[in-house]
Amino acid sequence: MAYVYDFTQGNKDQKDLLGGKGANLAEMTNLGLPVPPGFTISTDACRAFLAAGTEPDGLEEEVDAQLRALEARMGRRLGDAADPLLVSVRSGAKFSMPGMMETVLNVGLNDESVVGLATRNGDERFATDSYRRLLQMFGSTVLGVDSEAFGDRLDELKAARGVASDAELTAEDLRGLVEDFKVIIREHTGADFPQDPREQLRRAIRSVFESWNTPRAALYRRQERIPDDLGTAVNVQAMVFGNRGETSGSGVCFTRDPATGEPGVYGDYLPNAQGEDVVAGIRNTIPLAELARLDRASYDSLLAIMEQLERHYLDMCDIEFTIEEGRLWMLQTRVGKRTAEAAVRIACEMVAEDYIDRDDALLRVSGHQLIALMFPRFAPDPDRHPVATGMNASPGAAVGRAVLDTETAVAWAERGEAVILVRKETNPDDLAGMLAAQGVLTSRGGKTSHAAVVARGMGRTCVCGAEAIEIDLVNRRFQVRGGPVVEEGDMISIDGTTGEVFLGAVPVSDPDVVRRLEGEEVDDPVAVSVARLLGHADGIRRLGVRANADTPEDARRARRFGAEGIGLCRTEHMFLGERRHLIERLIVADDEAERQEALEKLEPLQRQDFGEILEAMDGLPVTVRLIDPPLHEFLPDLTDLEVRVALEDERHEEDRRDHVLLEHVRRLHEHNPMLGLRGVRLGIVIPGLFHMQARAIASAMADRIEAGGDPRPEIMVPLVVHERELTLVRGELEKVIGEVSADRGLDLHIPIGTMIELPRAALLADRIAATADFFSFGTNDLTQTVWGFSRDDVEAAFLPAYRDRGVFPVSPFESIDVDGVGKLVEIGSRLGRETKPGLHVGVCGEHGGDPESIRFFAEAGIDYVSCSPFRVPVARWEAARAVLARD
Ligand code: ADP
Ligand code: MG
Ligand code: MG
């Protein structure tokens, strides 16, 4: 088995085997570019090493053979006393992990070869500088000496010599430094720096292998979702020297600006330096353009190569180079990372330049990047400092008065104030407050806490777990630990993209991209390009996109964003505020007459709600979900009420109403509300509620028809687990619709479908489909019940630990668990369609707006996803990318 490949043997498509750096070094070599020769030890070798804890059989011999070939080619031997060959030993995994793994330069120098190098080049300073760099890099990466030990010594020396930069140290200074570094190594490791060049090489290679498994590399991979089992390749390459005086230097450059995407080269250069100095920020670099002044010939050849590379890779390239005494050497290239803005701009300009077509352009901008382009933002200001920082739970920028509870949030919002809801943590009772607020700030909980999940679903900005904040509800204020006191009503600003909290009102704006996608005329080129690409995406995708919307405003916004209907219109938000009392009365009613009265009062209100939404979505389907949550969510909290009643009793001023209420709250109290009396179960136990809603929907439809509209409501029954539930409820709903039809002299056709959100329903979907006109997978509840996770309980308790311990790379509530929940979605839709070919199948729930999940749904043959209005463009985008990625 071959473990080692010469640069002339590979190409850019072999990243699995050679790592990104090795594959691209090979590609550049074969393009005839000036690349110092070398060879790549494959990721196979690394994996074998990591599995066995030692070099695999044959590796040693192969490296030897390759090294001899390299020596022959260069006419020098590694570490030779008179004329040494020096090499770099460079890590390079399949996916770039900047700064995470090791690289050692100048391998092969020792007490003898440093003299040879100096004599041969007639430059003692350069040779000694290279040696001190080897001691420093080898010492810290291979031998594990704290790198500060070297850095501190270097700083002391510079201070003693009164110089600002290492480039000003003399050969003699550096000779002293070499001796000092050797002492540091001996003191820290108990052994001398290895003088044998072959041993240096062997240990450097080993240490690159091992650097794959350092905790920081593992953490980086988890964040970037890079698999843990890839391993890294190792590149051994002949050294070229940027530290040979003023006609030498090292630099990095991009073929376009990675921050803005602007055309024109962009980069940094450092004269008289080896490459690691550029990135480490040891000295101030100069802009690449100034190289034109220092060394016109090298600058011109660099520019020509940059153009050649961009044409070859058909993408923006990120390049590392060194100039040795006026001669240019290419040391690395890769397709460069870029901001979301730059991604769009570069992709579209490359279409215009005929490098790529529109399909490629779409593939180059991820759904996540589009999301990033859509969040409102604060204008940048270096003088602004946060008073606290939490987790960036739901991006965006929100400004408003701090309010400490939901009631205040709702009341102030009603009188037109912008508010930020500040809570220790939120619970389902805070929904109204969150809806009323511009943003949510909590002092506890992580990125999957209730506040975070709900805020993301609603497109509200959220910073959670800002632990420095201590809320004092008694005095209506919060204290920032070690900082100011903020009174309720004070203006604050929160940045959900960075997790920062500011005092006062920081100016914000909707980005041009959003304004353009909503149909406004703007001429920002990125916004125009996004809109154009989105139009292109619509021509490619097969997945439909609807929105989750409960209000006419949301429906209108969703429509502007291109929603093809509403896939989930929740009705429980319609029972907040004033109407909550009606539900309360309904629940505590003594007799049927009282219950009827409450229902009769609710019906016209609901009818109006539905009418407005149907109007906003005229001509498009609106799927209304019948009331779903447990009813006690509409009643006061049990403990609060018990305290209130106890106090009243004590004062002998008992309120009969509170006593009755308490009785009912106790009756309805559940240990597991999520698995309790909710969804279709309510429709079976308290049928009046569903009837009222169906009558309101049918009447609203009739109203719209009479007004000349084209209403298309659909009724969706939640939490069905057995086909009998649906047949029972369906019969009654049809009866109500029939009555309204007869009353109004219209033939109202309203499809009745069901949510599939329990495992049993998915497994027996063929039976349920017999009575259902459509399915909609509720992937939130399905995830809870498949995993047996009660979301609000597990998020804080152990989801983070599960992520860290690698049970899953990302919470299954954020991105669909393809293996489990996804399998049930596939089974459910297949079984449903076995009974009813062509059964319309949708997905509603947070996953409908998550790029990876959208991709899965598109591939699973789902008809449409329904997501928050804000995510509609993302779903359109990602659905097209799913088609392109597969073709
Ligand atoms: P990273 O992956 O952290 O960028 P590299 O392996 O690219 O690490 O090495 C960092 C820098 O070291 C390079 O940008 C280059 O300037 C320098 N370097 C690496 N190999 C050589 C070499 N053979 N000759 C001269 N400089 C080198
Ligand atoms: Mg590099
Ligand atoms: Mg549900």
Question: What would your notes on this structure say?
Answer:
There is one protein chain. The model has no long low-confidence stretch (mean pLDDT 93). α6 runs antiparallel to α7, α20 (525-540) packs across α36 and α27 (687-706) packs across α28 (723-744). β18 (439-442), α18 and β19 (461-464) form a beta-alpha-beta unit. The strands form 7 sheets. The protein has an 8-stranded mixed β-sheet. The protein has an 8-stranded parallel β-barrel with strand order 26-27-28-29-30-31-32-33, surrounded by 7 helices. The chain is elongated. The chain contains 36 helices and 33 strands. It has 887 residues and is α/β, with parallel strands linked by helices. Adenosine-5'-diphosphate is lined by residues 36, 88, 90, 99, 103, 105, 237-240, 250, 274-276, 320, 322, 331-332. One magnesium ion (MG) binds at residues 718, 757, 778, 780-781.
Notable characteristics:
887 residues, alpha/beta, eight-stranded mixed β-sheet, 47% helix, elongated, binds adenosine-5'-diphosphate
What's the end-to-end separation, in Å?
34 Å
Radius of gyration: 33 Å
Q: Into which percent range does the helicity of residues fall? A: 40-55%
Number of helical stretches of at least 4 residues: 36
Mean pLDDT: 93
- Give the beta-strand count: 33
**Structural class by secondary-structure content:** alpha/beta
The distinct ligands, each listed once, are:
adenosine-5'-diphosphate, magnesium ion
Low-confidence stretches: none
The quaternary structure here is single chain
Largest sheet strand order? 14-24-23-16-17-18-19-15
Q: In what range is the share of β-strand residues?
A: 15-25%
Give the overall form: elongated
Largest sheet, strands/sense/barrel = 8 strands, mixed
